[in-house]
What does this fold into?
Amino acid sequence: MDRRSFIKLTAITGTSATLASCGNPENELIRFIPAEDIVPGVAVWKPGVCSLCSAGCGLTVRVMDADADVVRDGQAGVVRIAAAKKLEGAPDHPVNHGGLCARGQAAIQVTYHPDRITQPLRRSGERGDGRYEAVSWEDALVEIVSRLDALEGAGNQRALACVMRGGRSHRSALVQQFLARFGAPAPIAYELFGDDVLRRANGLSFGREQLPTFDLAQAMYVLSFGADFLGTWNSPVAQHVGYGLMRQGRPGIRGAFAQVESRMSQTGANADEWVPIRPGTDGVLALGVAHVLMASERYPAAAAGPAGALIEGWSAGLVDYSPPEVERITGVAADRVERLARQFGDTRPAVAMVGGPPLAQTNGLFTALAVNALNALVGAPGQPGGVFFTQQLDVAAAAQVASPEQAAAATIERLAAEGLSGGASPDVMFVDGANPVFTTPPAWRVRELFEQVPYIVSFGSFLDETSILADLILPDHSSLESWAEALPESGVMAAVASVALPVMRPLHETRATPDVLLEIGRRLQRPLELPWQTFDELLGASFTNLPSTSDFGAFFDAQETGFWSGTLPDSLAVAAARVAAPGPVAFAAPEFDGDAAQYPFHFLPYPSNAFLDGSLAHLPWLQEMPDPLTSGMWSSWVEINPSTAKQLGIGEGDVVEVASAHGTLRTGAVLSPGIAPDIVAMPAGQGHRSFTRYASGRGENPVDLLAPVTDAATGAPAWAATRVRISRVGPPDGRLILFAGGSREHLEEHR
Amino acid sequence: MCLTAFAGSVGCRLFAPDPVASDVAFPVLPGQSTGVFTTERPTVAAAVNDFFGRRPIEEQPFEFPHNIHVGKQIMCTVCHEGVESGPVAGLPSVSTCMICHAAIATDRERIQRLTALSEQGIDLAWKRVYGYVKEAHVKFNHAPHIRAEVECATCHGNIGEQEIAQRNVDLNMGFCVNCHNANSAPVDCLTCHF
It folds into this structure.
């Protein structure tokens, strides 16, 4: 027998023999008549919208015939359907220009996930034990309507709360309309790695309370403070495209790029120069650069305009931020500060950006304002190669409905604090797309709040830590099965509104959440009289009013291409923010939770390249994707500088205990030279208690260690402001999984 | 046996799940399937037959007489409509049968069975008669063959005279290559294997 036959025989007999006992369900299933006309073997590419993050990249979806397991009238069977099989970036989309990140590629697994919730469920066990019974849509809707009618009857409409993901979209506009018309407070948007601090700073400096767009393609010098713009921050695919053009898109010209951060990120690994800095002092370095530029008299302080006026001592040339002083505070050598400043000032156009850890400190707003002032000083705002703010569509204006009262929405932290101290607590809670139980510091006690809420409705597709507390689960379609839309906040110069028809029929007994809300609104004792029967009517009403030169109108054209792009008339654009400026701000030393003697290390959780804040940990393709810097997969780890590890007697892969004043966890150690000796870093996203078979019980959640520290101006969590201690527990025990052996092999090879 | 054990042990090593805390369980919810794994072949015998290239006669879910329909001058493409629009000819669903049989021969027992299935929304799980085993890695596309005006019978034999379709042309590589050579069609590996 030759080798080939041996392998073939082994494979055939091995799999067949092992699995013969499992039965053969596929061959016994009956086949249902397909509900659609399908040409077998022919692929059709349809436009789609990626829904995994708020960047709003356009998709092109390969749709082809496939057999799907379905249940019809209680009978299991197989039916031929037109199924989405592959996602790619839409070539003409103005945000991603044909690119798609690894997370977007894996988005297809949401639709076909084996642990997807397939039908409405009602809690049958104790709260949190995950026991549910099937319930019909009709019964579920009757139940939820009676709950809301009871609130209305008691005149207690304000006891309805809704927690959802941040970001502007037609969906969030619909939720706002629903809540406002019912009489409930505005929805609470929560994201652990949100950018509220930067939005607020941009509102103060430039009058645009939104994320910035960078014209990287034309930039010659980029100075980035902690912004992981090639990995997870802002609009990564758009920034990748721009970055590629900056480095290689202009014959003979290669833009330069320096990254300031205390742990090397994927972005930092691409930089020409990597500048390690003490946590929470990035703003001082930015002002040090500004100081040198102003001293050279090429850049007069007045050039920065209102953005400069927000910084104390700006007009006097920032005398407190001389390079030696900057060295004392930041740890960046004075001559390096001067050199960075020369490069930044002499290379035109240059742009600075800030995001991520520098803004997750107690002085985050100061840091963002300092970098904004530096940008304003060199004239980056609105100039080619600089920073821009994309026009934002005002959905209420486009759909011609009254905009709800803009009362400041509560934060989840305040909601929990108030509810648990005997104050107003929600009676009915809607949860849409957010998982605050997993992503809030434990000291906020969000889980306790949820346990106390009498009735929770989740619209989630998976049983995560928050929806497992729900009394009723009304599963949403996947974004491939329903109308998908996005209003990108950044990553593109012109305004963009993306929309896509469903690319395939729903696989399960799910319903689109916006349609469910509209249905509930119609059924209430006092109907909410939302002017749309279905979600696509809202989309149509909004898109029809967008400027278009086509005979068919903007909505028709957008369905064809997947997006509308252009200039919005002032009546449809979100007006510039009018934020009352506080007095000029000065550097205040960042405050860290935990005594420096007892907890000697800064703890830096960071959004995982695969899972972001953990909302994607249920997708097995992302679990098995090696981290670009450590090659870690299927697990958690903590990154430690080799010199620190040597002092503590920690080797690669050793089990270590990381403890803060708020929690303790054990995980594997990865020795990484790209991290400051007094910092330990850990990717977020793992450590789920309940989140499908792929993520449950895997790794540790760094959020469990976080102190309840926030940025005072915005209430955003200061997730980089916790101190920890670290100690070795034992030798490697297999909990750390690195791709291809990892760095230990590497170290041994180079010994 | 030891072969199987060896394969099993290799499989276990390759697919061993990572350490998962035992106190965590994800519940199976109503409406969710418990398994995502189906076997490649239903039985060991089927696997062995496959290995030796033996193809037992497939039992069809319904005794469709090709000879009657072809005898009534109905074109192959009326039912196998995919052949003119895509790479795969396709096996018709019950809805296709009912286009004619809603009115024709409704008194026959077989047609009544068909009507009953259609009313229940249940389709016929036809077994493919002609097709390549997966291991051959053949990507066959009907379109170029239709363009070259190759007769259906060239590859599908006297199927029009058969009562229940049976494979009587062995579509092995020699058969394909002979025809390709005779007609100056490309015989590059990547023409069919990609």
About this structure: The CA atoms of residues 244 and 293 of chain A lie 28 Å apart. Chain A has a mean pLDDT of 92. Chain A has four domains: 3-111, 136-190+411-476+511-532, 196-388, 601-749.
